[in-house]
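Task: sequence design from structure.
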């Protein structure tokens, strides 16, 4: 596979996935897979939820309760003051039981010794283009009676951000509003305000995004809870349990419908007060889920796409690149899970898209180019190599150096003796018929001995061994082919004699040496052939058969390469045209 093309394919795959990531495609699917990585963490022992549960509703009565009930609860807590109390109940309308009921709650709020945070709710919440300052167009707040001019009472917004799949994964840390608050023009998140009013330090506070991911710490129901009715009944004893704690008061009874879906609770919703407790725990404990910096995210995607190209460079002709790419995908998954556990969110889906798309594209390209290469090789070799050799070439086309290389080869030349006389004795049609029979018989013996049948030159045949595949037995194969040709010619001559046709005599020359092998020719026509002195010597040896009255002559180079026993007779040294040194040659005994 061309390395530049492979690199281009993987780079294109990386760019496609990076653009998809930039456009925010498949975000819902990404969230789904990220949710699978969420694991429970130790919940804060300082956080306690006073739950308005079914038992409390049965004991105290139908919801909504009188404000006097909350006044009594806050008064009980004042006996053993918690660090801070977050009342996750919207008291935006006057009490249906009259002004005295509201006044009872204000009186207690004015006298408590610990901070209390009430929720506000923006509807709708408008996200700015930069997501730096979500804006509240309408703000629903508790009655001014409960918050104005009371030193220890403050306000925090209770908004979450629902993703398209209905799951809460983020919340705005601050929202822009005209409502008076601790910071002019902005209102802090409910959980954030609770910790600030309680005097708690928030680890890595400056690193918090404008819209942080919620790092959930516990499964639904894992936050420590005390039933609201138990607190009222337990009095001092129960209140002691809450001294110096972060206390959140809110509804958990399913019938009151204050629940949200979370990554932990697909199909089972989490009460809103418990979700706020998760945010408090996250901020207090330093649990974070911070997306990887955009530059690093794009770099990761491109690296995931380009790595398969490296595997294809290392193993261009096997399935190892696929195995290595799958192993890399598993490694990405492990790395992503480890980073997620440590608070860094890497885009899992697009990372895996990158290496999958890159690997698939490379395999498709390799398959298509391989098929094209196989067709070219079949076209090139199909008619003049044995089926076994062709199959071996097709198994690994890389063994065939079509561009040219120097190899040790054994070359065979054969020629018809007295061809001019033969052509004079027969008509052109008869000559062609005889030659076709001759070439068919001789070619079968050559091809069946693992040779490349190079060409027919008039009445001559040229074949070679040792290319395109290595052949340790090339000399033996060449000599066996020559013997087969001699035997086949004897049988052919019997058929010719029976038909009244002239018989044929041949000479064969074989030489082993170095030659340049490859596709040789022009842009209009080329053949897979060889050139060099070895070819010339084989041709000269074939011509020497006339002088020595023999049918076959082989060089000493070929004799020395034989691995099987053959009965040969020395013909001594001969001079070969084009070579300064004489050659020792042999023939069959």
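Answer:
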């Amino acid at each position: 596979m061309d390395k530049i093309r492979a690199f281009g394919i993987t780079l294109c795959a990386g760019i496609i996935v990076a653009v998809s990531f930039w456009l925010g495609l498949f975000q819902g699917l990404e969230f789904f897979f990220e949710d699978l990585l969420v694991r429970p963490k130790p919940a804060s022992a300082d956080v306690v939820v006073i739950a308005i549960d079914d038992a409390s509703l049965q004991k105290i009565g139908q919801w909504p309760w009188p404000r006097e009930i909350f006044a009594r609860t806050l008064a009980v807590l004042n006996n053993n003051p918690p660090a801070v109390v977050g009342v996750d109940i919207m008291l935006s309308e006057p009490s249906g039981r009259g002004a005295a009921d509201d006044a009872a709650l204000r009186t207690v709020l004015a006298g408590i010794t610990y901070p209390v945070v009430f929720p506000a709710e923006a509807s709708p919440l408008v996200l700015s283009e930069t997501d730096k300052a979500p804006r509240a167009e309408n703000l629903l707040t508790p009655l001014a009676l409960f918050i104005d001019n009371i030193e220890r009472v403050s306000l925090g917004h209770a908004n979450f951000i629902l993703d398209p799949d209905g799951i809460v994964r983020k919340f705005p840390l601050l929202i822009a509003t005209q409502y008076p608050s601790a910071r002019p023009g902005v209102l802090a998140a409910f959980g954030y305000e609770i910790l600030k009013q309680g005097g708690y330090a928030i680890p890595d506070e400056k690193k918090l995004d404008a819209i942080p991911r919620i790092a959930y710490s516990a499964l639904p129901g894992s936050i420590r809870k005390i039933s609201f009715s138990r607190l009222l009944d337990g009095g001092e004893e129960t209140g002691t349990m809450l001294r110096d704690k972060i206390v959140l008061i809110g509804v958990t009874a399913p019938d009151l419908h204050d629940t949200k879906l979370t990554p932990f609770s697909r199909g089972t919703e989490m009460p809103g007060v418990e979700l706020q407790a998760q945010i408090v725990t996250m901020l207090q404990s330093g649990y974070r889920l911070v997306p990887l910096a955009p530059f690093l995210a794009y770099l990761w995607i491109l690296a995931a796409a380009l790595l398969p190209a490296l595997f294809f460079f290392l193993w261009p002709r096997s399935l190892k690149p696929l195995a290595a790419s799958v192993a890399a995908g598993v490694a990405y998954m492990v790395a992503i899970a480890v980073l997620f556990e440590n608070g860094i969110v890497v885009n899992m889906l697009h990372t895996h898209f990158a290496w999958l798309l890159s690997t698939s594209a490379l395999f498709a390209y390799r398959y298509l180019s391989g098929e094209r290469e196989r067709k070219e090789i079949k076209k090139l070799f199909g008619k003049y190599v044995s089926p076994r050799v062709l199959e071996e070439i097709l198994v690994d086309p890389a063994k065939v150096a079509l561009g040219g290389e120097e190899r040790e080869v054994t070359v065979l030349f054969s020629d018809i003796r007295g061809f001019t006389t033969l052509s004079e004795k027969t008509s052109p049609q008869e000559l062609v018929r005889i030659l076709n029979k001759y070439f068919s018989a001789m070619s079968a013996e050559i091809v069946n001995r693992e040779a490349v049948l190079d060409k027919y030159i008039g009445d001559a045949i040229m074949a070679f061994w040792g290319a395109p595949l290595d052949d340790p037995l090339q000399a033996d194969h060449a000599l066996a082919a020559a013997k087969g040709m001699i035997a086949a010619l004897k049988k052919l001559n019997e058929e010719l004699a029976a038909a009244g046709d002239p018989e044929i005599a041949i000479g064969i020359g074989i030489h082993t040496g170095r030659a340049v092998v490859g596709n040789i020719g022009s842009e209009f026509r080329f053949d897979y052939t060889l050139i060099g002195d070895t070819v010339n010597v084989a041709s000269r040896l074939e011509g020497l058969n006339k002088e020595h009255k023999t049918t076959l002559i082989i060089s000493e180079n070929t004799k020395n390469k034989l691995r099987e026993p053959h009965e040969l007779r020395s013909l001594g040294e001969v001079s070969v045209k084009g070579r300064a040194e004489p050659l020792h040659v042999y023939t069959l005994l």
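Residues 131 and 210 are 7 Å apart (CA to CA).
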